[in-house]
Amino acid sequence: MNVLITGGGCREPIDGVRCVTNMSTGRTAAQIADRFAAAGAQVTALLAVQSQLPESAPLQENTRQPETGRSGSPLLRLFRYETGAELAARMEKELTSGAYDAVIHAAAVSDFRPAVITVNGESYPAGKNAGKIPSGSRLSVTFEPAPKITVRLRTWAAAGNPGGKTTIVCFKLTDGADSTERLRAAAVLFGEDTADYVVSNDLSEMKDSGHKFALLGRSSADGELPVTIRTGTTTEELAESLLMLIRQQYCACAKNSGTAGPA
Q1: How many CA atoms within 13 Å lie on the side-chain side of 229?
Q2: 221, 190 in Cβ contact below 8 A?
Q3: In angstroms, rounded to a whole number, what is the distance separating the alpha carbons of residues 137 and 15?
Q4: How many alpha carbons fall within 13 Å on the CB side of residue 45?
Q5: Which of 104, 184, 186, 188 would you call most buried, defined as having the most Cβ atoms within 10 angstroms of its Cβ?
Q6: Using one digit for the tens of pLDDT, what is the confidence trace for 13-70?
Q7: CA distances, 173 to each of 87, 107, 179 (Å)
Q8: Which phi-psi region, left, alpha or beta, contains residue 121 (left: φ > 0; alpha: ψ -120 to 50)?
């Protein structure tokens, strides 16, 4: 079973030394990667430059051969990214060139990125090429919507796995939303035919002592809200739930195609 897992938060540059990021630590993705690796899956992890590493991570990044990680479990490959554009480019390359059975897209991709910076009344393109803005300057930043990665996952996966089925799991974070609002937020991903399953969690319930989640599936009737498949309160429960779900999908596809392999 070949699985691609993303995690951590993007860093979008304002100038040569400053950036806009989010609070994602990558801890959830790291624990999911460890669980899949321990179960014998071939795992490729795309993690942000400052995110937490899985215990099964190889000591050398970007390796193309299976290695033994710090925990003794094999993690096939590890790649790092910084910006949303870097993550998208690596995901496209991986998905279009390799037959992945599943994608678990847990990375916190920026919805907006700096486009223009105005320094003391003069405007310049934002980004690393802007150099370092001198301290004491009056600075304003204009943001633009960042391209969505999720809407391209299905196309990329189909290109690399034309004869198989790639199960796509996306994450949807809300903040202070009630249960209906969370379902509606997840429904957008299903409506775009982006995801087969969505992990819904709310910032108000994400604490060091627990990580409440709901694993959602598409409703059988058009226009209805997603259905809840499983709920839990810890990242360990989430990782186990995803492993069971994706293993079931993988085994069903292997049976239908007449192929066999370790799940």
Answers
A1: 18
A2: no
A3: 13
A4: 34
A5: 104
A6: 999 999 999 989 999 999 999 999 999 999 999 999 989 999 877 655 554 444 444 5
A7: 19, 11, 12
A8: left
